[in-house]
Give the backbone structure.
Amino acid sequence: MPGISFEAFFADDFPRLAGFLISLGYESALAEDAAAEAMYKAHENWGSIDHPGSWVRTVAKREAMNQAIRDQDGIKKAVQGGWVPPKQSPEDPPRIVEARLRRQEMLKTLPDQQREVMAWTFDGFEPIEIANALGVAPDTVRSNLRHARTKLKKLYTQQNQQAEGGA
């Protein structure tokens, strides 16, 4: 892609790409693996990619989905074999982790299309860019965003009211 080196793109976009996948509901380790694989593929195809931000998100989402399916099969085999992997503590400060988990839990309440457009939006993409990347009409993206925001606002309000009532 003319104008920006792959190295500069990678340095700027890799953390955001992993965050995008986390916003879609993937575990952080899986998100980082899928983001790395997407970046590797972007590097291989750098000269032919017109819109690298949306390109890597599309590839990373597909990679994460495939890896999640493989992981589910592995979990089933591990449970059947009596082996359970140890839990790892997060490296982020507790309040950041808590905020991320809260956001992820709220996003999980949304239908898939709404959750996906919110993840793209959190990652700084405009509705027209999201529509192009997903192959849908811009009005569909705007509608999904509107419905998602309405639901998230209602959920946020309910959670705050419950917290105030319980305090």
Notes: The chain has two domains: 1-88, 89-167. Helices lie at 6-23, 28-44, 52-81, 94-108, 112-122, 127-134, 138-166.
